[in-house]
TrEMBL record:
Heme binds at residue 425. This is Cytochrome P450 4A10. Gene3D superfamilies: Cytochrome P450 (1.10.630.10). The keyword Transcription does not apply. It holds the Pfam family p450.
Length: 484
């Protein structure tokens, strides 16, 4: 067949022509991304040069952070993980990416997947002005003075939490400390910010953990194409419905629906938003997002700390001695130095949000370690890479509170459990206070005496918010160590 007849054949059959055009476009794009793209000189796996498919696979599977960590070990601190995406495992980049003006480098577009009920939240919105209006309306609720005024509420919730833990442990059965810690965190968040305790610690309530996990699973779609995410999310709800999650979400929705109806007089979180001109529907959505965020991260931290102390009884013994000493002297609740170091170390290892916090470069781009990242490039760092960096945290997977007794500037810089820069967690002060109070009371009551972890490792799906595999972090008390 001559070249002319071949061309005529291709033109005569539109489907063949379509395949040829698609092949030519794909080949041209692959060659460009591999050899001529501005990010081509940056090392990384070959597939990442021309396709994001491999990254989407690991994101959905839940081993993205571990995979990227291995790639950093092979290629160095700056790697190309997708045609237009860079991951950095060097804390020196924090200032460049997260401490610039908000207008210079914005959250990446895929954060909008965390919109709630069709509303861009304080967390998910990309537009700075949209966030600023809402942030200003509620910022005073998160101020130190407001948290101090609510300290008695936090103490009451912590006392109820410890009582529940003691009662469950006394039964000499496995105790899901993650569920209890989330219940405590939910009650603190709602009591302090909504002026109305949800009652998650009350045994009559549907477990709030199911509501939290329904939000967490959205993280598996975080980096996936939007259309694909919608379809997969719909299929997961239709094909694999979770009745407990549905009941838990309905319970939270019912609580918030009642709350926005009368909160104006109380001056809590929804009321502040509505006073700023935010609609009732959006105020409810913003509040729903806050219930999740406040419950998830604080609950994960406390549960991880309890598990770590059960696994390291010698560390727990030091905390007990310190607690008894401070009880006898009446020292300030936040002053015990070993407790502070333990909590800091627990937050480093808890990996509540392990994955990279992606930003989109704008303007003239940015330069880092001799690499130029042009405008439009997605770039980020994550707690998984920073917190487990052996150059900053020797023996990074070991639980060593002592490392914080002489913390280096690099350790302080790379410790990022609440995110980084102007978009860091708005509730970090309340979360820190809640963790301190809960752990202070747990140790003072000696409720972890004899506790043992059911599993030797906390295994997680490395989504945007980590999901504990099997959904539980459980402790058990042998009969000889049974609490009375």
């Amino acid at each position: 067949m001559t070249d002319t007849s071949l061309l005529e054949t291709i033109i005569s059959y539109p489907w063949i022509l379509s395949i040829v055009i698609l092949f030519v476009i794909s080949a041209t794009l692959t060659i460009y991304r591999t050899f001529s793209h501005p990010l081509a000189p940056i090392p990384g796996p070959f597939l990442a040069k021309f396709s994001s498919a491999w990254l989407h696979y690991h994101t959905y599977k839940g081993d993205e952070c571990s995979t990227i960590r291995r790639l950093h070990a092979l290629y160095g601190p700056v790697i190309r993980i997708a045609p237009n995406e860079i991951d950095i495992a060097d804390g020196k980049a924090i200032a460049e990416i997260y401490h610039t003006k908000a207008s210079d480098i914005l959250k990446a577009a895929h954060y909008r997947k965390f919109d709630v009920d069709g509303h861009a939240t304080i967390f998910s919105t990309i537009e700075s002005e949209h966030r600023l209006v809402r942030f200003k309306a509620v910022a005073s609720l998160f101020a130190t003075a407001s948290i101090n005024e609510s300290r008695h509420v936090i103490k009451e919730c912590a006392s109820k939490f410890v009582s529940r833990l003691r009662a469950d442990a006394s039964c000499s059965r496995e105790v899901d400390i993650l569920n209890l810690a989330r219940s405590f965190a939910c009650d603190v968040t709602t009591a302090c910010l909504f002026r109305d305790r949800y009652g998650a610690l009350d045994e009559t309530r549907v477990p709030v953990s199911a509501f939290v996990d329904s939000f967490v699973t959205i993280g598996r779609f975080f980096y996936l194409p939007s259309g694909f995410s919608v379809v997969m999310d719909w299929l997961s709800m239709v094909v694999f419905p979770d009745k407990m999650a549905k009941s838990s979400v309905q319970a939270v929705d019912s609580y918030l629906g009642r709350l926005v109806g009368y909160d104006v007089k109380k001056g809590g979180y929804p009321a502040r938003l509505m006073e700023a001109g935010i609609s009732v529907d959006e105020a409810k959505a913003q509040s729903k997002d806050l219930v999740f965020a406040g419950t998830y991260s604080t609950g994960m931290t406390i549960a991880t700390l309890c598990w770590l102390l059960a696994r390291n009884p010698e560390k727990y013994a030091i905390l007990r001695r310190e607690s008894l000493q401070h009880q006898s002297t009446g020292a300030n609740v936040n002053s015990p130095p070993y407790l502070r170091a333990t909590i800091k170390e627990g937050m480093r290892l808890s990996m509540a949000s392990p994955t990279r916090l992606t930003r989109t470069v704008s303007g003239s781009g940015m330069n880092f370690r001799g690499h130029h990242l042009p405008a439009g490039t997605n770039v980020g760092l994550g707690a998984f890479q920073l917190h487990l960096n052996p150059d900053v945290f020797p023996d990074p997977e070991q639980f060593l509170p002592e490392r914080w007794e002489q913390a280096t500037p690099e350790m302080q810089r790379d410790w990022v459990p609440f995110g980084m820069g102007s978009r860091a967690c708005i509730a970090r002060g309340l979360a820190t206070t809640s963790v301190f109070e809960a752990m202070q009371q747990i140790i003072a009551a000696d409720v972890l005496n004899g506790a043992q972890p059911v599993k030797n490792k906390i295994e997680i799906k490395e989504w945007y918010n980590s999901k504990v595999i099997d959904g539980q972090i459980s402790l058990t008390w042998p009969k000889e160590g049974k609490l009375i």
